[in-house]
């Protein structure tokens, strides 16, 4: 069982569309809302290894190795959520 190739290929597009960019999280974006909610839930900081942290890292550093698999999985979930919101 692997990830559908479309999930991995579309992950960078989905990440950018929701605000996880190569220079950080875009102000006013869905990603910024996610980060704010995560920080509030964790007492002011985003937990290492959380979905927001993984997506932020992938958006800033690009995709390779394990990050591709993680973002393909988490990005697919975020993409589904974004599609539901639109």
Topology:
Elements: H1 5-18, E1 20-21, E2 24-25, H2 30-41, H3 51-61, H4 65-85
Antiparallel strand pairs: 1-2
Key terms:
4 helices, 5% strand, mainly alpha, single chain, 86 residues
Tell me what the structure shows.
The chain is mostly helical and 86 residues long. The chain has two domains: 1-42, no CATH class; 46-85. It contains four helices and two strands; from the N terminus they run H-E-E-H-H-H. It has helices spanning 5-18, 30-41, 51-61, 65-85, and strands at residues 20-21, 24-25. The chain has a two-stranded antiparallel ribbon with strand order 1-2. Strand 1 (20-21) and strand 2 form a beta hairpin. Helix 1 crosses helix 4 and helix 3 (51-61) packs across helix 4.
Question: Would you kindly provide a brief summary of this structure?
Answer:
With 86 residues, the protein is mostly helical. The chain has helices at 5-18, 30-41, 51-61, 65-85, and strands spanning 20-21, 24-25.
CA distance, first residue to last residue = 29 Å
The gross shape turns out to be globular
Tally of strands: 2
Biggest sheet strand order reads 1-2
Helices and strands, in N-to-C order?
HEEHHH
